[in-house]
Design brief:
9 strands, globular
């Protein structure tokens, strides 16, 4: 055993898929709360393996099968996704489901300021991220066999109900700002307009892989939250950095983002709209909803920490963000009221 994997079993499995490649080298790329990801060097072939975490997981969580399915379906659409090769759902191989895809050369940035990038390229990379999201949302799910990839319709109403219920079940203290926000997003939720798209669920700079030298997206990563949803849910989430500060999950609010080439929120949204097939417009509700969703997620992290099921350091860092995200969302909604009056 190595890196949490049975390397002998993995070698045998790979030998059946790609005979004669030789020695296997494995290096873990990521883990944590996501699906553990490994770089595989199988002879001359470089691959990536993504596997469900070991131990008990919540029903429907860490569904590598869904990740594989959506990327496979998007493979010929022009949406930049890694080339997925094989899904193995037989747990007797490595103890849990996994899939293997081709390696993609590129750059991934955990910092929204894209350190080390020129001002000109930084702007182009942000705008290409907006265009990439528009391309994803332009794909009709039924045309690529994903018409049953989620429940269609009333996406925001169902999501508000889900996250409000999770917050109501918290074992920790109530958060007045989140109490107010939960009520307000429910009251301001727009009527369902019938728009349905493939929703990535975590579409952000940190999940974009950019070309090694050029300012363009070459792959969208981490599809574990993908489903059928509303396109403006993804867009509202993607613009979160403009509404949060660096110590609030890595935002850019209050920084010199414009001086280093990052386009304004309006410019980013305009680039998305110019390339999207839908005329539906991003509203304050959509940005507030994204913050509400994350505030509820942070509450859940704090609950798991109290129960001993989350890393204390992570909970200490993320738990307090529930109140701050709720306050940011309330500010957005209050400002929108003032503009209407």
């Amino acid at each position: 055993m190595n890196n949490g994997l049975n390397l002998n079993a993995l070698e045998d499995w790979l030998a059946e898929k790609i005979p004669g490649e030789g020695v296997l080298h494995v290096e873990q790329i990521s883990g944590g709360q996501s699906n553990p990801t490994y770089s595989l060097q199988w002879g001359s072939r470089r691959l990536v393996l993504r596997i469900k975490p070991a131990g008990p997981v919540l029903p429907g969580a860490h569904a590598v099968e869904r990740e594989f399915r959506v990327m496979k379906a998007l493979g010929n659409t022009g949406v930049p996704v890694p080339n997925v090769l094989w899904l193995e759902d037989d747990p007797s191989v490595l103890g849990r489901p996994f899939y293997v895809m081709d390696w993609v050369d590129g750059r991934v940035f955990s910092d929204c300021t894209l350190p080390g990038v020129s001002r000109e390229h930084r702007r182009k990379m942000y705008l290409d991220t907006a265009r990439t999201l528009a391309r994803l949302h332009a794909v009709r799910p039924a045309e690529i066999g994903l018409e049953d990839f989620g429940r269609p319709g009333n996406y925001f109403r169902r999501q508000i109900s889900r996250w409000s219920r999770q917050y109501d079940e918290t074992t920790g203290p109530r958060i007045p700002a989140l109490d107010s926000l939960s009520k307000l997003v429910s009251e301001t939720c727009p009527e369902d307009d019938g728009l349905i798209s493939i929703s990535h669920g975590d579409f952000r700079i940190g999940n974009m892989m950019f070309h090694p030298t050029e300012p363009k997206v070459v792959a969208i990563l981490d599809w574990e939250l993908s489903t059928l949803g509303h396109p403006l849910a993804d867009l509202g989430f993607c613009v979160m950095p403009w509404n949060t500060s660096p110590d609030e999950y890595g935002g850019i609010l209050g920084t010199n983002w414009s001086d280093i080439g990052i386009p304004s929120l309006d410019e980013f949204v305009a680039e998305y709209q110019a390339n999207a097939k839908s005329a539906s417009q991003l509203a304050p509700f959509h940005m507030a909803f994204a913050l509400f969703r994350f505030a509820a997620i942070f509450v859940g992290i704090a609950d798991r920490a109290r129960a001993g099921n989350a890393a204390a350091a992570e909970a200490e860092h993320l738990g307090p963000l529930a109140e701050r995200f709720a306050e940011r969302a309330l500010t957005i909604l209050e400002h929108s009221k003032e503009e209407v009056q």
